[in-house]
Design a protein that fits this description.
By secondary structure, the protein is mainly β. It has three helices and 17 strands. Strand 9 and strand 10 form a beta hairpin. The longest helix has 9 residues.
Length: 259
Amino acid sequence: QQFMVKVGDETILNITGQISHLLNQPYMDLTITDSEIHLDRLFSAFQTILPDSIRQQFQNLSFQGILSLNGSHIIGSPLSNSLQNGLSFYLNLVAESFNATYLEPFFHLSNLNLNLSSSGTYTNGGIQKSDFSIKINADSISTALDSTSYSIEGIHVDAMTTLNHQFKPDSLSTVVKIDNFFEAPLDFKLKFKQPSSSHQYQANARLTLKELSLESLSYSAIQGFIDFDFEINSQSLDRIYVSLNLVSDIIEVMTEEES
């Protein structure tokens, strides 16, 4: 069987598969075979049905991009008590060339590409296990406050986590890299893992900035560069170790006469 989801005249999802035994032990086997969602068209379609009071709040907002759910599927029975026969799901969400602009206060997100995936099993007792991963690459994020403009460029995020039946993370790994964070490269790494049979855990987080310009950060008369390295290690709430390494070159404060 084939199912379609349409918004206006545009088909945004094609789904193939079957749904059976709805009255006793429902069974589903569904796969999204074709998906192309143009966000600007979808946004325009929904705006026409919104009340004027709500629609006015979106007048300063615009965005473009394409979403896809190709390859996402579910199979199994959501009322089963066993993992083997439960409802297994796989979500694959892809966003390409996403751009968003808000005029006041000004905010602009340029060319974001995203891949979000998740898999797990749902039974009569809820979600028993699941994992998530996300990858993000974006050209820039810009904003302006009063007469001052701020921008970060070259944004890269790679994160993944596994969740137990209580929806708490068993493990987490995150890497964030920004090529131009106030004219300096930024690196952030986070790792967390907790064995199921232990109240202890292993956690490590580290943030580094190289040659951060104080002038670009504060937009003031302070000139100079600093290297920043901050790290946290922990195995339990009563065992947390923190280190901070801050290195600077000569810092100068320009007076009005000198400038």
